[in-house]
Amino acid sequence: RKDTRKNIISNYMYGYLFKDITVSDKEAKEFYNKNKDSFICLPHASLYEIKLYTIYKANEIYKELKKGKDFEKIAKKYNSKESTHIGTYEFHEETLVHNKEVTNAVKKLKSNEYTKPYKVDDGVVIILAKDVQSEKRQKSYKEVHQELQANMLAEKQFKSFDSQMNKWREDMKK
């Protein structure tokens, strides 16, 4: 019952403090145009791997891939771990994909290309790159406008809340 009361009061205060706060498309576009350098998409790729225990099996699978077999089907059948997705790798980072040798091989891949088998600490891997973007590029307003407007709205709401709290503190001192 106390939680319900707190929620009702909180919702009322939220509505009271933020009811008139908005971010227009015009405001967001102006911010975007003044801060275009903040909206850059760095070179990156989504990486997937088949991890195996032996180089012998990895070489067999590599030959199958070279013949045109589907990477995902082979990964489901032979992968020694549950998921094949490693994550998104940004090429500007000094982060290694297993080790320097594998990282250098990954950096040379184009979309839908894979590495030869590489020995790593806990087995052997073959890595597939998807959605490779090798060049830095400017994100368009269309790509960023929803997130930008949401961030700008949150910032305005925070400033409004902070301002109102300071006003109330001053009123309490009187």
Beta percentage is 15-25%
Largest sheet: 5 strands, antiparallel
Number of strands: 7
Helix content: 40-55%
**Radius of gyration over alpha carbons?**
25 Å
Q: What would the average pLDDT be, to the nearest integer?
A: 86
Contiguous uncertain segments of 5+ residues:
none
Q: Given the structure, what is the number of helices?
A: 6
Please describe the topology of this protein.
Blueprint: H1 2-18, H2 25-34, E1 40-41, E2 44-52, H3 55-66, H4 71-78, E3 85-90, H5 100-107, E4 113-114, E5 118-120, E6 123-133, E7 137-138, H6 141-173
Antiparallel strand pairs: 1-7, 2-3, 2-6, 4-6, 5-6
Helix pairs in contact: 2-6
What descriptors fit this protein?
174 residues; two-stranded antiparallel sheet; elongated; alpha+beta
Outline the structure in words:
With about 170 residues, the protein is of the alpha+beta class. The protein is elongated and about 80 Å long. The protein has six helices and seven strands. The mean pLDDT is about 85. The longest helix is centred in the C-terminal third of the chain and has 33 residues, at about 140-174.
Short précis:
This protein has 174 residues and is of the alpha+beta class. Helix content is 51%, strand content 20%.
